[in-house]
Amino acid sequence: MATDFLNKPVERLGKPVFRLGLACNYGIDEAAFEVGIERGMNYLFWSPFRTSAVTPALKRAIARDRERYVLACGPTVAWFGGNVRRGCESLLRRLGTDYIDVFQLYWLGVSSAWTDAVRDELLKLREEGKVRALGVSIHDRVRAGRLAEDSPLDLLMIRYNLAHPGAERDIFPKLAVRNPMVVAYTATSWGKLLRRPKGWQGPLLTAADCYRFCLSNPLVDVTLTGPKNRRELEENLDGLERGPLSAEESHWMREFGSIVHG
Asked: Which run of H or E residues covers position 131?
């Protein structure tokens, strides 16, 4: 396994992360989850939806060795400070842990709001030690760039892939101000990057190629994968053994992504 490529110390979390993060809400079961953590995966993205099959295994893992894992989750909605507080305390009880590594608001501007009350409650939770890092998932790249420069957020979860590389323009140049952590998702553009576009005669991408593209950018700390089963999980992990993209791979993959984007 390309150790230097896939493992990274993250100061904001106070622990190292395996850079392919495991999203638990796309069908993976307990047995496949166990395979993932046995192979080193420790960034675990859990949501209240579609995760019942894997939740028992996740709870066992964090009970067994809490400091090894980065647990990332958040409230279902967060329009008000009360939503944030109640959501955090509910998650702590449900998952049987004393703290959440990454407590994040989902889809900022749609299912959550960045208000003074919400921000203040997040800061209180971090001060109390109930959460260690504050994050948001966000589609608005320009707004994400502003938050990267001027906010108390420790993490931005953003869309970044070969068909949508705009974060390289709108977000990544802003990171140097405060150095928030970056988690990329939709690496396969919801599967569009795995299909042959009209007129393309070159090679096709695998899901692992899409993750390699994201992780080849040193500004991306973690890229999420949402496997449906053990086969997909192991194919993704095996594919990462090829390490970062070569210059030649980067060139044709970006060309492919621009065609997919249209």
From this structure: strand 131-138
